[in-house]
Amino acid sequence: MKTAANAPSTVDPPAPASFAEKGRDKWGALQGVHWGDKIFHYTTGTFAILVLALPLLMMVMLIAASRLSITNFGPAFLVDTQWDPVREEFGALPFIFGTVVSSLLALLLAVPVSLGLAIFLSELCPKKLRKPLGFFSELLAAIPSVVYGFWGIFVMLPWLRDSVQPALARWFGFLPIFQGQALGFGMLAAAMILAIMIVPTIASISRDVLRAVPDTEREAAIALGATPWETIRHAVLPMAKSGILGAVILGLNRALGETMAVTMVIGNRPKISASLFDPSHSMASVIANELIEAEKDIHVSSLSQIALLLFGVALVMNLGARWLVSGVKRRAAKITASVKLETSK
Amino acid sequence: MTTEAITLDSHSQSTKPPSDAASHLLHADFGERRRKWFSHFVVALCGVSAVVVLVPLASIFLYIINKGAPGLSLDFFTKLPTPVGVAGGGLSNAVLGTLTLIGIASAIGLPIGILAGVYVAEVGKGRVADLIRFFAEVLSGVPSITIGVFVYAVLVVPMKTFSAFAGGVSLAIIMIPTVARTTEELLRMVPSQLREASLALGVPQWKTSIFIVLRTAAPGILTGVMLGIARIAGETAPLLFTAFNNRFLSTRLDQPIASLPVQILTYATSPYAEWQQKAWTGAFVLVFVILILNLIARLGTRRQVGGAS
């Protein structure tokens, strides 16, 4: 396949044997190709270019839309804590703080449980349960975030307010993060709902990564007398480590960009507070709340700049995570291939 | 921390040189038992975490079914919403609006997604295809609210009105990477012998791609389409400032339009019990449709994979 793709074919070889090669040409080498192939190449190519152009166009448009805010506030936009549309003061720090803290806290809650679930699904659980459970946890990733938020308002918030927050305040009330009034909604609620939402993402990708580790690794450990946990700890996890990190980053990415569920439970108040019980705000939810009502250009522009920030963060995290995940699969494939080579000798 | 310490501990015990045979035997026995217990403990912990994950998720399903299903009636799909205090009514505007938005998104997103997938899998092998795959991945990672802001800047501001068209475009952008990726993956699954056989008969590549490869992969691509629709059906954030909302039935593309997710949001955050009840029913309908689409897609893919291997 590869050689066919790279074969030079600027001239039209008359030999019918090279017919297939012509169709696999790259740009500019379409002379002497069947007219239908030309049309096919250019039509599909145009649509493919659209996919390529969209993110670029998005970035350019977002930069253009936030130019007013960038020139007005400069880098201070990122560290200013005042957000007052009436007085035209715009500082994004409360939103950045809310997004970062709620997402990291969500990771803290979600990662141990997701890894437990992933290990359970890939290594421990009876074969019969494996498929339905995996299927169920993947379906959960498909539930719309507005439904998560709805459930959060009516089920999670009362539970947090009446049971969790009083208990936390009683036992850990000396910590500043667990002080203040138990309202239900606030930073803690946002982190909880995000944790629930990203568990399926982290668990299903981690499970795929764990499954990609060749069985030969497990067999070697078992043959040495390792217990099930030691097999996982010393044979499976080291190889899957970076892939699991990738899964965690993808989960974090989902948490950072999540809008509806967070808006519905975080309380939407642009103040930085040490307590997790206090209402907070996030980058995505301020856009959702204010863009429709924003009338001043500078207000719209500031919101666009927050969207641009989200875009940039998502870009970096997503690519990094995918690179890590595909790295594990590549290495695993290499081992499987070498094992096959050994056994076939 | 403790897990690390204990595993290391058990290791150091097993590598300790034996002083005399009996104590070594005793030692090994003790270490082994501890290792086994610890292993059981971790296995149990994994099982517990599986349960911990399932509890909130099961609760979500139960609530949606318990609260949503009783409100289900024909009126829900055929009647307009009533003001607070007036009994009856439905969410026909939102149901029709969501269908319209999905229709617009499909009309724009499916051709782009499928043809881009065809290009990457069939035509542009090598660096160009890698580049396009890369950008599709970038696009799939962009938060939906950012896509909404983009469409707001590109369509809503120049047109000076919220519109069904703008909503459809933002959903299309969200859908494209999903459709492109599944199309590409399924085209790759088509055995290359089929392609070669067709080319060997002197069929041009475009005919081979369309009538042999695409046709073989068609059921699979259909599942990709369903996954794409399931992906966008529940999107709320980008619709807030593109499609906005509408209390009436509307099929005009240049006017604001209602949608189920936005209507659920409005009603869920309202203080009125009957509106909240409608929101539960709306959530039930939405989740049900999305799960059905996912189920069909998954079963379809399984058959496709089975057939190709």
Concise summary:
The complex is a heterodimer of chains A (345) and B (309). Chain A is an all-alpha fold.
Question: What is the CA-based Rg of chain A, rounded?
Answer: 26 Å
Number of strands of chain A: 2
CATH architecture of chain B: Orthogonal Bundle
What number is the mean pLDDT of chain A? 85
- Tally of alpha and pi helices of chain B: 12
Give the terminus-to-terminus CA distance of chain A.
26 Å
Low-confidence segments of chain A: 1-28
Oligomer: heterodimer
Largest sheet of chain A: 2 strands, antiparallel
Instruction: Please write the CATH class name of chain B.
Output: Mainly Alpha
The count of helical stretches of chain A stands at 13
Give the uncertain stretches of chain B in residue-range form.
1-19, 305-309
In CATH's first tier, which class of chain A applies?
A: Mainly Alpha
- CATH homologous superfamily caption of chain B: MetI-like
The proportion of residues in beta strands of chain A is under 5%
Shape of chain B: globular
Report helical residue fraction of chain A: over 70%
Structural domain count of chain B: 1
Find the structural class of chain B using helix and strand composition.
mainly alpha
Instruction: Describe the global form of chain A.
Output: flat
Would you kindly provide a written description of the structure presented here, covering whatever features stand out?
The complex is a heterodimer of chains A (345) and B (309). Chain A has 345 residues and is mainly α. Chain A is built from 13 helices and two strands. Chain A has a single domain, classed as Orthogonal Bundle (MetI-like fold), CATH 1.10.3720.10. The longest helix of chain A is centred in the C-terminal third of the chain and has 48 residues. Chain A is flat and about 75 Å long. Chain A has a two-stranded antiparallel sheet. Chain B is mainly alpha-helical and 309 residues long. Chain B has a single domain, classed as MetI-like fold (Orthogonal Bundle). Chain B is 79% helix and 0% strand. Chain B contains twelve helices and no strands. Chain B is globular and about 70 Å long.
